[in-house]
Structure formats: C-alpha cells, structure tokens
Write a structure and sequence with these properties.
The protein is globular. It is of the alpha+beta class. The chain folds into two domains: 220 residues, 3-Layer(aba) Sandwich (Rossmann fold), CATH 3.40.50; 123 residues, no CATH class. The relative contact order is 0.15. α6 runs parallel beside α7. It contains eight helices and 19 strands. A four-stranded mixed sheet has the order 3-4-6-5. A three-stranded antiparallel sheet has the order 13-17-16, with no helix packed on it. Strands 1-2 form a two-stranded parallel sheet.
Length: 398
C-alpha cells in the first residue's frame, strides 16, 4: 500500500517477531497487539483499512471450523473496527469526501468453508455494518510478475461510494499481466528431474508452488523446489559454474535454466515447474527448495555452504533461502545493476508489550531464519497489494 502512495498511520500485529519487523520498518507508527482489545478510539483517522483474518479455520488443510473458529472468527473483530472508522470517516468528510474502503485477504478455503457459506456470511456482515458496495475476486500472484502460484481471495468494501467493480475489474489476460506459458521449455538442462518417474510430477511449467512459513525450510523436512547447477538466474544465462539462486525477475527459470520441484512432505516430487508452490505458514504439505545436479558445494547468497544438500536420486536438493522467499513474495526488487534489495525481514526492532501496544525498547536485532520463513508464508504478495492500492487511489480520486 505504501508503494501505491498510501501512508500507514497504525498497525495491529499479534506475532512478536513480525511486530518487530514492522516496528523496524515503520518507526514511530502506533503498533498494537491483540485486535480484540483495540478500540476504535485508539486509532487515528484513516480512509483505508487492510485486514487479513487468520486462515487456519478456513484452510482445507485444517479442521474447517469456519467463521465459528476462534482464529478465523477474528473477522468479526475487524468488522467492529471497520464500522467505527467508516462512520468517523463519513462524518468528517476529509480528502476522500467521506469515503472509506476496507480490503481483506484470505485463502481460497474461504469460498468453501461453512458448507460454502463463509464468504456469504462475510458479505452479509459487511453490508450490515454499512458498506454501500462489496466486491470480491481471486487473484494469483504468478500473474503479477512473481514466480509463485498463490491464489488468494480479496474482498473490497466501499463505504460511501460504489467503486468495487472499478478496483477489482482485472482478469488474467489484463494488459501487462499475461498468463504464463504452459508449454515445455526449450533447451531444459539435461538431467533436471533425474531419478523421478514421469508419473510423479506434472509437466514443466512457469512458476513455483506456494511458499510456506513454518519448519525453517518452508513447510518442514523434505519440501523443496529445484534449480539446476550451471545456471546464473541473476543474469539469465547458463554459466556452468555454481548453482543458481532463485530470482523473481526470471520466473525462477527460463528455457535454458533451472526448474522447480515441489514435494508433498516426503521424498516423492509432487510437481516439477518453473513457478513455486504457495508459501504457507503451517507445517507439512507442499514445499519448495532448490536442486542442483551433482554439486560438491552449495552457493547461497554468494557464500559457499557445505552440508545443506541431500541426495534425491541423481539430484541434490537444498531449501530456499529467506531472501529467495522474499523475492517470491515481491518484497525484493532487482536494481538496474542486477543486484537485489534483499533483506526486508532480516532485521527487527526489539519490542515489549505494554498494555496492548508494542513498545520499542532496544536497537535492531537480526532475525533467525525460522521467523523469516513464517513471515513470508503469512505475507500478502507485494505487487498484488500494490496493484489494488493503486486502483483504489484512482477510484477515490475520480
């Protein structure tokens, strides 16, 4: 949203490590912990609220308690706050002429939870608190120049206006976001996928499956995504030197470059593609990593690392690095000189809780890899949110 020109005036974050990153990246901005303890009067005036209520009770991988669940039911805490802020925004008028817009993001399990009624319940609740128009859509990160297949539901609520159709009027064939090719790449490196049977994975495609966030290696244990040795993904060419690392600019792989393999919690590949499976926050399920053919050493972020790879048939596999996960989510950008603005989650501010507000008490501290993986699995892909943010600004300006 900040990239789209909006200014952050307050935040709410339960997880202490994630709150530390927010405190470091947004100094001086009020940062609260428990949304159920946040009162509307605690928050400054605003024109836009973004929220992502927990997905655990909605995900098809969980027990599916739906909106009655203790975690996903926090949706109703969000609507309580939205109602108060929207009424205040409409009363004061302000730069948006009394408009207020709320944007939610969640997993596609929202569409089938509660016997298929969860989304309808969300829409009804938003109507009852005063939304004049509500729209929803499913957006996939791979159509926003990211090398990750990540489908998420976005709900836009307009209070005081009717701009949801304008904000969400996007399709996979929209100019600038062409659908990725689904044909086998030409000149794929020899031996990629060696040791795997054709029945154990799908055809090579552009993109990597969804990144996950617990377990330190994106979902735990053996879940990985493959990149072949001898390709320099930074510069988009085959070098014959060290194993390449993942970049979002090249879609992880090009026709002559490395490929992606997703595991399903064991040693059997579930798919082999050019895009990552979805980064996630829970243990197990699909996962991603980087593979190379017959290497002796692994190169991670320019440093030689021994002992990170394990054999899978004829392929050596390593997990993605935190920086690679940030690239798959769009937190890193590539500069004209080819370098990357990595490290969005590398540092955090030390914070302590006073009442219900995170207070900055010490200087910054480097994060361990575990929280960084979890934060990327929980994050919204940056280019997707930025696109919605720009469409909202255009709608309000008009």
């Amino acid at each position: 949203m900040r990239r789209a020109g909006h200014e952050c005036v307050a935040m709410v974050e339960w997880d202490k490590s994630a709150a530390g990153v927010l405190a470091y990246r947004y100094p001086g901005i009020p940062l609260y912990c428990d949304v159920s303890k946040v009162e509307v009067d605690d928050l400054p005036d605003c024109d836009l609220l973004t929220y992502g209520f927990p997905c655990q009770d909605l995900s098809v991988a969980g027990k599916r308690k739906g909106l009655e669940g203790e975690r996903s039911g926090l949706f109703f805490e969000a609507t309580r706050i939205i109602k108060g802020l929207a009424e205040r925004a409409i009363r004061r008028g302000g730069a948006t002429g009394g408009r207020f817009i709320a944007v939610a993001e969640n997993v596609c399990g929202l569409l089938s939870a509660d016997d298929g009624l969860a989304l309808a319940r969300c829409i009804r609740e938003l109507q009852q608190i005063g939304a004049s128009e509500i729209g929803w859509t499913v957006l996939d990160s791979q159509y926003f120049n990211l090398a990750q297949r990540r489908k998420r539901v976005f709900i836009v609520s307009d209070f005081g206006g009717e701009s949801c159709d304008q904000i969400l009027a996007i399709t996979e064939s929209l100019h600038g976001n062409p659908a990725p090719e689904r044909e086998a790449g030409k000149g794929a490196p020899a031996g990629v996928g060696s040791g795997f049977t054709p029945s154990s994975y799908g055809g090579y495609e552009r993109g990597c499956g969804t990144l996950r966030s617990e377990g330190g290696d994106i979902g735990g244990g053996s879940e990985t995504l493959a990149v072949a040795q001898g390709a320099d993904v930074y510069n988009g060419e085959v070098t014959g030197d060290t194993a390449a690392t993942v970049t979002s600019a090249t879609g992880i792989a090009n026709a002559s470059g490395p490929k992606v393999v997703g595991w399903n919690g064991d040693v059997t590949p579930k798919s082999s593609e050019d895009v990552s499976v979805t980064l996630r926050s829970q243990q197990g399920g699909e996962g991603v990593g980087v593979a190379q053919m017959n290497p002796t050493l692994d190169i991670v972020d320019g440093e030689t690392v021994e002992g990170m790879c394990e054999m899978r048939g004829a392929t050596m596999v390593r997990r993605l690095t935190p920086n690679e996960c940030e690239r798959l989510q769009g937190f890193s950008t590539q500069l004209p000189d080819g370098t990357w603005t990595d490290g969005w989650t590398e540092w955090k501010q030390i914070v302590e809780l006073e009442d219900n507000e995170w207070v900055r008490v010490e200087l910054k501290q480097k994060q361990k890899d575990g929280p960084r993986y979890r934060q990327m699995g929980n994050a919204v892909s940056v280019p997707v949110a930025e696109y919605i943010g720009r469409r909202m600004a255009e709608a309000v300006d008009e």
